[in-house]
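Re: beginner question about structure tokens

> Can someone show what the tokenized structure looks like for a real chain? I only ever see the sequence side.

Sure, here's an example I had lying around. Input first:
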Amino acid sequence: MQCELALIGFGEAGSTFAAAAGWGHRARGWDLLPARRAAMAAAGVIAADSAEAALAGAPMVLSLVTADQALPAAQHYAPFLAQGALWCDCNSVAPDTKRAAARAVAAAGGRYVDVAVLAPVNPARLAVPLLLAGDGAEEAEGKLRAAGFTNIRVVGSEVGRASAIKMIRSVMVKGIEALTDEMMAAAEAAGVADEVLSSLDASEKSQPWAARAAYNLERMYTHGARRAAEMEESAKTLLSLGVPPVMTRGTVLRQRAAAGKGKA
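And the corresponding structure tokens:
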């Protein structure tokens, strides 16, 4: 069976997409962590022995690694791309990081697509909102839809435009979570958590604040390390725009400190 796409990284996003789409042996995967080969097998995806083997002849690649590995993955693996292959960088990194990755992919004869994933992959799965930018964005949209993704929008031909939307949006989304963590820590230390949450309910009725606080904290405890890395990239984005990332840097610290609390 012909390989239709390759997956670089098979963590939560890669395994979720593969299971939801049922790509089976139409997809090949590669991950630096050997333990993830079992997850690939469970999803029916071919577990390649190397990145080179995973990318060989693949017309489209989904890069689904951690934020700190997005640029190294593009730089190290671009030479293995088939000529003209689409490298869809789905990682949450700054526009400058994506532009650097795009240069590496272009130098190897591939075509780079800046992809921003605007919501958690669970429970949205293949309906997760995707923004695409870059010269290959229009073609990538067609291939991604053929692969099963349903919520895609091309936002421009300039690499970095999709990631700018994602990173700037994250300043608010992750910032609210970090502020929630700080607020609840102080409220519990003062013994006034119920009163603080009730007062917030009185001023805003869209969702009870107890539920919102619990949700925000759960997201931080579960994904704090990954979100901190993403917010480092948001800080870079703001700096590149001439905006001092004062609160954003604080969010990095809060997200990182919260990581793993839920397991304690």
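Each token stands for a local structural state, so reading them left to right follows the chain. The beta strands are 5-8, 27-30, 46-47, 60-63, 86-89, 111-117, 130-133, 152-156.
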